[in-house]
Specification:
The protein is α+β, with helices and mostly antiparallel strands. The chain has one domain: q2cbj1_9rhob like domain (Jelly Rolls). It has six helices and 14 strands. It has helices at residues 12-21, 32-48, 83-90, 93-102, 184-187, 286-294; strands at residues 23-26, 59-61, 72-76, 106-116, 124-127, 141-146, 157-159, 196-197, 205-209, 214-216, 225-234, 256-257, 264-267, 270-273. Strands 1, 2, 3, 4, 6, 9, 11 and 12 form an eight-stranded antiparallel β-sheet that branches. 35% of the residues are buried.
């Protein structure tokens, strides 16, 4: 997919801040045209959700969700469910921003649209992302887009600056079940005065590294907080199969943007030039490949 040309959006200081603190907050990132298009597309799914009575492949809904008062927690994989979201993430402003931070090319991993509804939209407890979908390095980052103005009472994302360089915490509960959040004994060691709450106007962007500690409070305001998220890694970063959400992230997961993959990776200090990606077209046998080399 062809990357649309755009003016440079990040300064050298922006990039330095991202690497030092693990996050960015970019005010007024989107054009009004893109913002209006994304908001209208998101609203299409709100209307569609009125016919849904339980969570499924497309929607994750709150227990209070009804046809008259829809309350979607998440639209799963918007890139796979609408051409507007696909263009935005794979060729539009989000893809361009990922390339600016990671260099070209980048590898798309997944997308989601989180709705935090007014009057009690659910919190997201403190966690790091990389444990959910481990990669062969720590380049993955997530770009968030506020589709509406987000004030403090609406439960904006909070981050611990610099925590991406700290420990990778266990996100299992004391009983051994997956909790998806850090345990209370970890929370007791954190200084909440260090949290930066990323408020912003509609069209603003957030970026956070996969190892950054982050979370958000319930939405106690009177407006919904829709947050469009898309995750990318460097082109030579690979999701590790068989662990977490890797493998169930959508049909577009693994798409290379802004170039081609060199199929090179480093493990335990040793580099290799891996085979081509055969996941979409099937793998040849070793006999066929080697026989072709001799012909």
């Amino acid at each position: 997919m062809q990357i649309a040309s755009s003016t440079r959006v990040l300064s050298d200081q922006d990039k330095a801040n991202y690497h030092e603190f693990g996050y960015l907050s970019i005010d007024s990132f989107l054009s009004q045209k893109w913002l209006s298009l994304l908001k209208a597309t998101a609203q299409e799914f709100v209307e569609l959700s009125r016919t849904v009575t339980r969570s499924g492949k497309v929607f994750d809904i709150e227990p209070k969700h009804t046809a008259d008062e829809p309350r979607i927690r998440r639209l799963n994989s918007p890139v796979d469910n609408h051409a507007v979201f696909e263009e935005f993430a794979l060729a539009g402003p989000a893809a361009q921003l990922a390339i600016e931070l990671l260099g070209s090319p980048v590898r798309f991993h997944h997308s989601k649209l989180n709705f935090k509804w007014a009057d009690g939209g659910e919190e997201v407890k403190w966690h790091q992302d990389i444990q959910f979908w481990p990669h062969t390095d720590f380049t993955p980052l997530t770009i968030g887009i506020y589709l509406d103005d987000v004030s403090q009472d609406m439960g904006p994302m909070g981050v611990f600056p610099g925590s991406h360089n700290g420990p990778l915490h266990d996100l299992y509960a004391p009983d051994g079940s997956w909790a998806g959040a850090v345990n209370d004994h970890v929370l007791e060691t954190l200084d909440m005065d260090e949290v930066k709450w990323l408020q912003g106007r509609a069209g603003s962007a957030t970026v956070h590294n996969c190892c950054l500690m982050h979370g958000s409070m319930p939405n106690v305001g009177k407006r919904t907080r829709p947050l469009l998220l898309q995750t990318y890694s460097a082109g030579d970063s690979y999701p590790i199969s068989g662990i977490g959400a890797n493998g169930v992230t959508g049909a577009k997961s693994g798409t290379i943007i802004g170039g081609i993959s060199r199929q090179r990776l480093e493990i335990e200090g040793r580099s290799m030039h891996g085979a081509p990606d055969w996941s979409r077209h099937g793998a040849p046998t070793i006999f066929g490949s080697q026989q072709k080399e001799r012909n």
